[in-house]
Amino acid sequence: MVLQQIEKLGDNALYVVERTGLMGVFIASCIAKAVTPPFRWFPILKQIHFIGARSTVVILVAGLFTGMVVALQFYDSLVRFGAVAMLGAAVALGLIRELAPVLTALVVIGRVGSAICAEIGIMRSDEQIDALECMAVDPYRYLIVPKVVASIVAVPVLTVIFTVIGIGGGWFVGVVLFGVSEAAYFQGMYETVVWDDIEMGLVKSIFFGLLIVWVAAGKGYFLHLERNGSFGAEGVSHTTTDAVVISIIGVLVADYLISALML
After folding, report:
1. Which end of the chain, N or C, is more open, meaning fewer C-beta atoms within 10 Å of its C-beta?
2. How far apart are CA 50 and CA 234, in angstroms?
3. What tens digit of pLDDT does each residue of 142-200 get?
């Protein structure tokens, strides 16, 4: 019994190491092909539209109400210490450094990451990727690279939109609803927010964009190597669920690591 448990543990460890290596080679190949010609611009623009433009409405709604909630919570705390003038700074810093990159990434995971994993997983299950290889078409350059480049471009833009709308939502709650001075709201923001804060938010959003496509596309691409061995609708559904969960956990872990390195 003990030997069986040790054998099972070793088997699981080897599987994790093998999959980690595969995913590492996968993203390295994608990045290498993304920076070498030939460049295919139309598929990249198409993916930017899918990842960015079609996510804008969700980002607008999420950013607006996130900013309103943040302003409401900070106002309740700051008013106790007579520091309401710092409301704008608190809202801006909270959104720029943490909330906007993380929540934007979570929205993109739910709307885009799952779709990418399901699309590529279905192509693998139906042997369409094998057909591309038989026709001497590089599946990395044809399928994955446009998604990687588009995500790296679109996620930071969505993060900026989230931040601006969130600050506007905080302004509505603080200035319009609670009567905080509009000058104090924006002046505190101007005096407190520095380039390092903006840089942290941008670095996080770029890395999150890469991470989302890496996990989603990688899980779908290597669907045939999953241990459960299930193809078809069941295999795609399981793989897509795993990709979403891993992406969310990865974003939260990366958020802490990047914050710890850049603070």
Report:
1. N
2. 25
3. 889 999 999 999 999 999 999 999 999 999 999 998 888 888 888 888 888 899 999 99
d(CA 208, CA 229) in angstroms, rounded, equals: 29
Contact predicate 124/134, CB 8 Å: no
pLDDT mean across residues, the chain: 88
Separation in Å, CA 185 to CA 84, 97, 158? 9, 18, 24
pLDDT tens for 82-102 read: 788 888 889 999 999 999 999
Can you give the C-alpha Rg of the chain in angstroms? 22
Helix, strand or coil, per DSSP, at residue 30: helix
Using CA atoms, how far apart are residues 247 and 252, in angstroms rounded to an integer?
9
Neighbour tally for 87: CB within 10 Å: 28
Check: CB of residue 120 under 8 Å from CB of residue 143. yes
Peptide bond into 38 cis (omega under 30): yes
Token look-up 């950013």 returns 63
Residue with tokens 């700074």: 89
Encoding tokens for residue 171? 């302004």
Buried b (16+ CB within 10 A) or exposed e, 19-52: beeebeebbeebbebbeeeeeeeebbeebbebbb
Count, residues in the chain: 263
